[in-house]
Design goal:
single chain, 5 strands, binds adenosine-5'-diphosphate
Length: 189
């Protein structure tokens, strides 16, 4: 299965992506994780991305698209993958469509995790205390939510029109959300 998981920051995408990918025996590919690892290693990509991430802005498409193109050229994605955090803009959708079309494939399903705004803000503030991510301050969280609403939320309608969108509530314990997601993905097949 070729999957994408979508939802606002704090919806639990990363957590669910890891568990669901493991269940389906496919790799989870998180652009946020790849960027953070690049920042930690001090690579050129990391240096270029850091300022945008710390401000809650999207890293420019030129950097992001190339990184994803390289990742999707690796062998382990041949049997499927779960993308987390990409695409996030219409331009990225077009690039991903192109990459997949070259291989005569496409996204099978897009899983949307829905969570109320107040809930995601409080989750992210809680996470800030535990993980200390530099983009989990209140101002930056609000900016990330704004950018999501402006640039990424419109992608949901696009995928709904393509008939691949599957929506589940991201509320409640992690295991319950996973069950909901797995059942929804299964019955959508
Ligand atoms: P969240 O969904 O909680 O904002 P992520 O870990 O997915 O967290 O992303 C963290 C940051 O990494 C984003 O705010 C953005 O700066 C950058 N990023 C991740 N994916 C993309 C993408 N597809 N396009 C542009 N920037 C991205």
């Amino acid at each position: 299965m070729r999957l994408l998981i979508m939802g606002p920051p704090g919806a639990g995408k990363g957590t669910q992506a890891a568990v669901i990918a493991e269940r389906l025996s496919i790799p989870a590919i998180s652009t946020g994780d790849i960027f953070r690892a690049s920042v930690a290693r001090g690579t050129r990509l990391g240096l270029q991305a850091k300022g945008f991430m710390d401000a809650g802005e999207y890293v420019p498409d030129s950097l992001t698209n190339e990184m994803v193109r390289e990742r999707l050229a690796e062998d382990d994605v041949r049997g499927g993958f779960l993308l987390d955090g990409y695409p996030r803009t219409l331009a990225q959708v077009e690039v991903l469509d192109g990459i997949l079309a070259q291989r005569h494939t496409k996204l099978d399903r897009v899983l949307q995790l829905s969570v109320e705004v107040e809930e995601v803000v409080s989750r992210l503030l809680r996470r800030a205390e535990v993980e200390g991510r530099t983009d989990d301050t209140e101002d930056v969280i609000r900016r990330r939510l704004e950018v999501y609403a402006e640039q990424t939320a419109p992608l949901l309608e696009l995928y709904a029109n393509r008939g691949v969108l599957v929506q589940v509530s991201g509320d409640g314990p992690v295991e319950e959300v996973t069950e909901r997601a797995v059942v929804a993905l299964d019955s959508a097949r």
